[in-house]
């Protein structure tokens, strides 16, 4: 990374938000520093620990925008199991209390 911050999410006027995430297997020093994703045209992806489980065996879908955008997303059951059990969600829950 060259020191400039990278965009990792987009939100439209209707507050529909798309975030770009990737698994983090490196040291904790890289957590919170977006990874460059060449396939996304320079957009960054936020590295998260323990993301391997929900992104394994993704399902194909289409985002409804103009002619449609093909995307691979986590299955509902994998996302649900991960979002309730990951250390990041537990930490976020404590912050909201």
TrEMBL record:
Polar residues bias: start-end ranges: 75-89
Protein name: Nucleotidyltransferase-like domain-containing protein
Organism: Rhizobium rhizophilum
Pfam families, sorted: NTP_transf_8
Domain Nucleotidyltransferase-like, chain residue ranges per copy: 3-82
Lineage: Bacteria, Pseudomonadati, Pseudomonadota, Alphaproteobacteria, Hyphomicrobiales
Domain of life (superkingdom): Bacteria
Residue ranges, annotated region (Disordered): 75-97
């Amino acid at each position: 990374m060259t020191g400039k911050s990278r965009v990792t999410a987009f939100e439209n006027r209707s507050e529909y938000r798309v975030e770009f995430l990737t698994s983090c297997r490196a040291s904790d020093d890289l957590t919170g520093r977006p990874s460059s994703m060449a396939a996304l045209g320079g957009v960054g992806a936020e590295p998260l620990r323990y993301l391997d489980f929900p992104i394994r065996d993704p399902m194909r879908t289409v985002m409804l925008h103009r002619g449609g955008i093909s995307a691979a997303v986590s299955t509902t059951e994998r996302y649900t199991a991960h979002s309730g059990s990951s250390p990041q969600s537990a930490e976020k829950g404590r912050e909201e209390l």
